[in-house]
From TrEMBL:
Pfam families, sorted: ABC_tran (PF00005)
A Gene Ontology molecular function term of the record: ATP binding
Domain ABC transporter: 6-225
InterPro entries: AAA+_ATPase, ABC_transporter-like_ATP-bd, ABC_transporter-like_CS, ABC_transpr_LolD-like, MacB-like_ATP-bd, P-loop_NTPase
Protein's name in the database: ABC transporter ATP-binding protein
Naturally occurring in which organism (per UniProt): Streptomyces liangshanensis
Length: 225
């Protein structure tokens, strides 16, 4: 099945006054796609990300993740599905400052039942995948911005997600570093990972195989020729 299948999905905040932040969103994303989402501030990008990331439940329509109906799940099943299938990458890296790179990555495995002894090895492998095999014992404060984001990407990957969901992943990086991080996301995508990047940067958006636009809660797709 597709990784993401949204059908007439919408979210209306009850208010008062009620406000429709996402309306009638239809989207199918298959495994191995690299999708970017653009739109001005307040357009509904975070609302969309929260729905796709199983942090919010649509008030209308349906959302299947890897073929699982997510709308009617119990909260703890939704949380478990999120932990198994979604890797999050944020603009600010959210690393624990007093933990080494490998510890930061391994922590992502604490709540999904990975045996303690396996966590370190899996974390090292994830750091190798992002090109940080030589920095596994480094503290975040000794790493550059780009290296910190690599640690955060390793943390998102370590649990073997089916979807990498990135919210302004280059927003805190200079242009050259942003370019290397986008290159890494492209490499991971080439290796089969499904990647979705939310950005307000049109240059970043152009790196996707597909670019979606959200404006006033409505999603449209410009088909590339
Ligand atoms: P209707 O619009 O059919 O009169 P209601 O206003 O009673 O239905 O809303 C039913 C549910 O659907 C509520 O939870 C509401 O928040 C949600 N809802 C209504 N319109 C939308 C929309 N355009 N997008 C997303 N959710 C919506
Ligand atoms: P973006 O991420 O594109 O900046 P958001 O998804 O954060 O947009 O917000 C979309 C719209 O929904 C905005 O107009 C925002 O003001 C509104 N919104 C966000 N959260 C709430 C809320 N809890 N209640 C009501 N409106 C909200």
């Amino acid at each position: 099945p597709p990784v993401i299948e949204l059908r007439q999905a919408g979210l209306r905040y009850p208010g008062p006054p009620p406000f429709t932040a996402l309306d009638g969103c239809d989207l199918t994303v298959h495994q191995g796609e690299f999708v970017t989402v653009v739109g001005p501030s307040g357009a509904g990008k975070s609302t969309f990300l929260n729905i796709v990331g199983l942090l919010d439940i649509p008030t209308r329509g349906s959302y299947l993740l890897d073929g699982f109906d997510t709308v009617n799940l119990r909260d703890r099943d939704r949380t478990a599905l999120r932990g198994q299938r979604i890797g999050f990458v944020f603009q600010s890296f959210h690393l624990l400052p007093h933990r080494t790179a490998v510890e930061n990555v391994a922590l992502a495995l604490v709540y999904n039942g990975t045996p303690r002894k396996a966590r370190g090895d899996l974390a090292r492998q994830a750091l190798l995948r992002v090109g940080l095999g030589h920095r596994v014992e480094a503290l975040p404060t000794t790493l550059s911005g780009g290296e910190r984001q690599r640690v955060a990407i390793a943390r998102a990957l370590v649990g073997g997600p089916s979807l990498l969901l990135c919210d302004e992943p280059t927003g805190n990086l200079d242009t050259a570093t942003a370019d290397t991080i986008l290159g890494l996301l492209e490499d991971l995508n080439q290796a089969g990972m499904t990647v979705l990047v939310i950005t307000h940067d049109t240059a970043v958006a152009q790196r996707g195989c597909r670019t979606l636009t959200i404006r006033d809660g409505k999603m449209t797709e410009r088909v590339k020729e």
